[in-house]
Amino acid sequence: MPIISKEIAIKAHYPIGKYFIQTVLIPDKYSKAEAVAWLEKNKLKHNYHRSTHNYNRYMQHSPVEGAKYYTEKLPNGIDYVYQKYS
User: Residue 2: its pLDDT value, please?
Assistant: First the structure.
């Protein structure tokens, strides 16, 4: 997904000044079927993803220009990447 401007993020109703999930990183030890099942169970999107070293990245929202990020590691090895812009 391309980086979007703050103006586009506002029009898309992204929350301003609050962290929200930008990407879910699922280790490649999970099959695609397992990953999709986990995402569906947790009401997360799985229609846009790409593979990187050791992970499949499932984008939830486009990255916003100038956003700040942090990662939350879950006990099952899956990571949430949060973003916040203002």
Answer: 86
At 82 the three-state DSSP class reads: strand
DSSP 85: -
The mean pLDDT of 38-45, rounded to a whole number, is 98
Could you tell me how many residues make up the chain? 86
The per-residue pLDDT for range 11-24, each reduced to its tens digit, is 999 999 999 999 99
**3-class DSSP string for 10-56:** HHCCCCCCCCEEEEEEEECCCCHHHHHHHHHHCCCCCCCEEEECCEE
What is the model's pTM? 0.92
Whole-angstrom Cα distance, residue 84 to residue 63? Answer: 10
Angle at 4 between CA 23 and CA 22, to 5 degrees: 15
Domain ranges of the chain: 6-84
3-state class (DSSP) for residue 32: helix
